[in-house]
Amino acid sequence: MAPPLIELAGATKRFPSGSGSVHTAVRDLDLTVGEGEFVAVVGPTGCGKSTTLSLVSGLQPASAGMVRVNGADVRSIPDGVGYMFQTDAVMPWRSVLDNVASGPRFRGVRKAEARARAADWIERVGLKGFEKYYPHQLSGGMRKRVALAQTLVTSPRILLMDEPFSALDVQTRALMQDELLRLWAGSDAAVIFVTHDLDEAIALADRVVVMTASPATVKDVFEVPLPRPRAVEELRLTEEFMGLYRQVWESLRTEVDKARERGAGNAA
Amino acid sequence: MPRDAVLTKEEPASRVYESEEDILARQRTKTRRRKRNIWLLRLGILAAWLGSWELTATLWIDPFFYSKPSKIWERLVEWFSIGTDFGSIWYQLWVTVEEAVIGFAIGSLAGVVLGVVLGRSAYLADVLAPFIKAVNAVPRIVLAALFVIWFGLGLTSKVATVIVLVFFAVFFNAFTGAREVDRNLIDNARILGASRLQVMGSIVLPSATSWILSSLHTAFGFALIGAVVSEYAGARAGVGFLISNAQGTFDSAGIYAGMIIMTVVALIAEWGIGWLERKLLRWRPNAGDNAASPI
């Protein structure tokens, strides 16, 4: 059998903290994600969810444990990884078309070919007609679409998403969630989606992983047996959804409380 | 308000008090009037300044030392119609501008390259920081005198002075610009498959461009100063040489005339750099109305 696309076992990340001690962001993390699986990661603020993604993406090396992508240890950025950041990472000096085309261009695809691919993805994320615009001329939701197209045009097998829609208003966010599911359904990419929004996690994912307060490790894993294709807005109102929500929230709440107490202790 | 009552009772509520054309027309008149008034005031200030100078120099102070607008004008006319004591004014101007432009090109290129490299390498920047600070603290304009001894009275010594002045103005801005690049953008580019060189070219340089461009305004000013001062220190031609010569013959009108010529050159260059800036920074939300607008 082929190895799982993403495999973390006992993964640990420690940083030197400013005050001369060492801060542990992630401790003994075990997580396996297979092809075509959508995993949402929830946890209290600042617990190290994003660090998990940077371990998988190879942007940061692990301090201990095993991080494997495609069956190989991660030493640099692995092939076939896409990463959507929390804040805008589109290049403000490039038009929408050139932003989306930049992935293929970096990988040595000819300009005309890269632009053709980009145009195709711009259409798929619903931005046809905006190819010549610069990012500052677009709304927050549209910029997210650009970032999504920029990531998907490289046809990643692994999609890492770090609270990509957290800065959007509620309506736009729901729209983007539907859009993401629609676009992802056509691929068999493995997704790790970090969020602090439980609704979002359950509505999107096959599995929801609850992280402990810092240092982060896996606390609970919940399967989400809701059928696909899903319509995010309608899903939220079903009995099943609310039952799941209660379960996951029960697990998450104690961690949120812990994190809050610690925060209050630090502030005092 | 009684008027509301009248409105609902007797007149249709949809009565139009001003149409879109009215609003736009009023707006246009307002901007036009504002623009006209600004220019009138500017002309007024200029006339008041030159008039009072002319008047005091005629009636009161000695124009031999302070000169006056009419004399300066005469000198300019003489230079441009008959020529200077040392040949055509266009030739003098060409010499100075050539020195400034060559020095500016070399100096700013070196400043950008070194600034970006050091901006991206904290290690190198730490090693070189004390040297750069020390060299920057030297009153570099004095080097003009040294360069004349080293390179003679010709073009080379002037270009060297200009480079030394321009380099630091550009370097510090390029350095800051390259250092303050958004970490996210770099990570994103790396994930998208960019090599180190591609990150430099497609992320770091464009990010630093607005910093670099805004430094070019001051840098070209320095280039002209460098060229003129260097000619002053010793030359065979150029506007700085004309000024130096005017000083030697107690011709204060000539000094002013040289000053005015250099001012006009600087303004034209400023306009050119502003144009370049607007073109290169089209992607910025407020491109055009930023950084040292020449009014």
TrEMBL record, chain A:
<keyword id="KW-0067">ATP-binding</keyword>
<dbReference type="InterPro" id="IPR050166">
    <property type="entry name" value="ABC_transporter_ATP-bind"/>
</dbReference>
<keyword id="KW-0813">Transport</keyword>
<dbReference type="InterPro" id="IPR027417">
    <property type="entry name" value="P-loop_NTPase"/>
</dbReference>
<dbReference type="InterPro" id="IPR003593">
    <property type="entry name" value="AAA+_ATPase"/>
</dbReference>
<dbReference type="InterPro" id="IPR003439">
    <property type="entry name" value="ABC_transporter-like_ATP-bd"/>
</dbReference>
<feature type="domain" description="ABC transporter">
    <location>
        <begin position="6"/>
        <end position="238"/>
    </location>
</feature>
<dbReference type="GO" id="GO:0005524">
    <property type="term" value="F:ATP binding"/>
</dbReference>
<keyword id="KW-0547">Nucleotide-binding</keyword>
<protein>
    <submittedName>
        <fullName>ABC transporter ATP-binding protein</fullName>
    </submittedName>
</protein>
<dbReference type="InterPro" id="IPR017871">
    <property type="entry name" value="ABC_transporter-like_CS"/>
</dbReference>
<dbReference type="Pfam" id="PF00005">
    <property type="entry name" value="ABC_tran"/>
</dbReference>
Automatic annotation (TrEMBL), chain B:
<feature type="transmembrane region" description="Helical">
    <location>
        <begin position="255"/>
        <end position="276"/>
    </location>
</feature>
<feature type="domain" description="ABC transmembrane type-1">
    <location>
        <begin position="93"/>
        <end position="273"/>
    </location>
</feature>
<comment type="similarity">
    <text>Belongs to the binding-protein-dependent transport system permease family.</text>
</comment>
<feature type="transmembrane region" description="Helical">
    <location>
        <begin position="159"/>
        <end position="178"/>
    </location>
</feature>
<keyword id="KW-0813">Transport</keyword>
<feature type="transmembrane region" description="Helical">
    <location>
        <begin position="131"/>
        <end position="153"/>
    </location>
</feature>
<keyword id="KW-0472">Membrane</keyword>
<keyword id="KW-1133">Transmembrane helix</keyword>
<feature type="transmembrane region" description="Helical">
    <location>
        <begin position="100"/>
        <end position="119"/>
    </location>
</feature>
<feature type="transmembrane region" description="Helical">
    <location>
        <begin position="39"/>
        <end position="61"/>
    </location>
</feature>
<keyword id="KW-1003">Cell membrane</keyword>
<dbReference type="Pfam" id="PF00528">
    <property type="entry name" value="BPD_transp_1"/>
</dbReference>
<dbReference type="InterPro" id="IPR035906">
    <property type="entry name" value="MetI-like_sf"/>
</dbReference>
<protein>
    <submittedName>
        <fullName>ABC transporter permease</fullName>
    </submittedName>
</protein>
<dbReference type="InterPro" id="IPR000515">
    <property type="entry name" value="MetI-like"/>
</dbReference>
<feature type="transmembrane region" description="Helical">
    <location>
        <begin position="199"/>
        <end position="225"/>
    </location>
</feature>
<keyword id="KW-0812">Transmembrane</keyword>
